[in-house]
Design a protein that fits this description.
By secondary structure, this protein is α+β, with helices and mostly antiparallel strands. The chain contains four helices and three strands.
């Protein structure tokens, strides 16, 4: 019968820092508020250029909702991406809230 190899003397320890995040840290929403200072065409173009996978028909629906209801959630997803989208939409002149 073969003997098991000896267990090496372990004198070094490896530590790993683990970041625990909550659902609120991982997800964000971009809310656009009505400002009556942009045309539908401007808002639709901005949404399509900034928001991933945004189509012109969906952008129109969101612009209509913002115009008639005062605000709409235009993106929901990863928080860092929500922050980036919010910043770009604000730079385009829209009233934006990221939460």
């Amino acid at each position: 019968m073969l003997a098991a190899p000896p267990i090496p003397d372990v004198t070094e320890y490896t530590s790993e820092e683990i970041e625990v995040r909550t659902k609120n840290d991982l997800e964000g929403e971009v809310i656009v508020h009505n400002c009556d200072c942009h045309t539908y065409e401007q808002v639709i173009e901005l949404f399509c250029n900034v928001i991933p996978r945004m189509s012109s028909p969906k952008a129109f629906e969101l612009a209509w909702k913002i115009d008639h209801e005062g605000s709409a959630c235009v993106f929901s997803g990863e928080r860092n991406l929500a922050d980036q989208i919010g910043t770009q939409l604000a730079e385009g002149g829209l009233k934006v809230e990221v939460r």
